[in-house]
Every structure is written in structure tokens, then in C-alpha cells.
UniProtKB/TrEMBL annotation:
Single GO term (MF): DNA binding
Chain ranges of the HTH LytTR-type domain: 34-134
UniProt protein name: HTH LytTR-type domain-containing protein
Region (Disordered): 1-25
Lineage: Bacteria, Pseudomonadati, Bacteroidota, Cytophagia, Cytophagales
InterPro entries the UniProt entry points to: LytR-like, LytTR_DNA-bd_dom
Domain of life: Bacteria
């Protein structure tokens, strides 16, 4: 029996066939959601369900309507990722979604729909009030109620008086 001689060179030097690259699909952002690395998996969290974020060093705790999760991104970086979506930084440790503010309880506290009370720092008080008034105006111009969800059972505050804060808070 004779074996035909073959030349493996042309086959070995040929490039491998291209396989579809699914990597971009894994990393693309779903509209209206955040892609977060939680543990060893990427998860998509709808921005509309975020109530507030709490920073603790290099970690951020994200509290949503369905629970909470902690991941390794600073609060400052998270603030950049969610800017412009009705979120306001009220303290060096907290960013709040204005859609879930139920009451302005006290001169420097926000009451959220889940019962949590968040302190507003003196440094962020004026910016927080201005963001709240802007949020209310946007909702009013759109013909909507101040709250964009069905979780709030108490009536929402509808206005805040902006006044300059003096040297001693007067």
C-alpha cells in the first residue's frame, strides 16, 4: 500500500477561521441601566430602581427597590456614571435619587420611600434644594406628579424656600 505524500505547510500556515466576537455584546450598556461587576459576574441594574448610593472608601453600597449590593467602585466614580438622571450628591457618603424622596424632614434631612432618613451636609444643602426644585419643575412641565413611581404613599413636598445661608446658618 502506498501512502500519498502530503505537504502540511499550506494548511499549517493558513490563519484560523474567524469566530464571532461576542465580547462587545457582553460589555455594551443596556439603555437605562448600569453594568456592574458584582463578585465575578457582570450584572445590569436599572437606574430607575436605584434609591440611593452609600460610599465607604473604595466601595459603594447600592440600594434599590429590590435589595442592596456592595461593589468595588468609589462613590465619586459612580456619581459620574449616573449623573443627569435625577441623582444628587447630598453628602460625601450619599447620592440620592430624587424620584424616591418622600419628605424633607427637618432642615437638613431627606426622608426616602423605604423609610431611610439621609442627612444633607451643609456644603451640599443649597445644591440639593436647587436640584429638588429643578426636578419638581421638570415633572410639572411634563404634566406628571412629582413622584415617578408607585412606591410613595405619603404626599410629596411640592416646594422649598431657597434662602441664602449666612455665616452661622441663619
Amino acid at each position: 500500500m502506498r501512502v500519498a505524500r502530503t505537504n502540511p505547510e499550506p494548511i499549517m500556515n493558513r490563519p484560523a477561521p474567524k469566530r464571532p466576537n461576542h465580547e462587545p455584546m457582553l460589555h455594551r450598556r443596556l439603555p437605562g441601566s448600569l453594568r456592574l461587576l458584582i463578585g465575578k459576574k457582570y450584572q445590569f441594574v436599572p437606574i430607575s430602581q436605584i434609591i440611593y448610593l452609600r460610599g465607604n472608601g473604595n466601595y459603594t453600597q447600592l440600594v434599590t427597590t429590590s435589595g442592596q449590593v456592595t461593589f468595588g467602585i468609589t462613590l465619586a466614580k459612580m456619581g459620574q456614571r449616573i449623573s443627569g438622571a435625577h441623582f444628587v450628591r447630598v453628602h460625601r457618603r450619599h447620592i440620592v435619587n430624587l424620584r424616591y424622596v418622600v419628605d424633607w424632614s427637618g432642615p437638613q434631612q431627606l426622608q426616602l420611600h423605604n423609610g431611610m432618613t439621609i442627612d444633607i451636609s451643609r456644603r451640599e444643602l443649597v445644591a440639593t434644594k436647587q436640584a429638588w426644585v429643578t426636578y419638581l419643575r421638570e415633572r410639572q412641565l411634563a404634566g406628571l406628579q412629582p413622584s415617578g413611581h408607585a412606591y410613595c404613599t405619603r404626599p410629596l413636598i411640592t416646594s422649598i424656600t431657597l434662602r441664602p445661608i449666612g455665616r452661622h446658618g441663619n
